[in-house]
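batch job 7 of whatever, protein = DNA repair protein radc
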Amino acid sequence: MTQLSFSSFDSSLLVRDAQGRYLPASVDQILGAARQVIDQKIQRGMSFTSPALVKEYLCAKLAGFEHEVFAVLFLDSQHRLIEYTEMFRGTIDSASVYPREVVKEALRLNAAAVIFSHNHPSGNPEPSRADEAITKRLKEALALVDVRTLDHVIVAGSDTTSFAERGLI
């Protein structure tokens, strides 16, 4: 694992190489470190007490990917995190999502609720018709096994769109 440190001399993040020298960190290294920090901050059992906390978590997890990633937050009946799972990986502008696999995982984890999320590498957080259609299919499939769908958050860099806030859920 690469160790990151902050240089107050030039305000950049640095990594130490195998020879012990400090070099500027790449964007991927910085994003990887951010994902590790958010994993430490939000762990199993942590309660998502506000939409802002959910968005912050999902931005840290999904921002910066050059391909679409569809992820699910599996929650218990008190909306505490059971598990964050990146379920499907796609191309630069789409990802295939299979409701059967999401239902299987929800049952395996004994989840009571879910929050869907995926990124838009284009930087535009607006939901497409396909995003709305798959959300509806997933919600209907999960409702058959009494798992509530709380939201679907699209992450585009630091911008987000919440289906729940727009009345789409």
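notes: Residues 6-11 have pLDDT under 50 and may be disordered.
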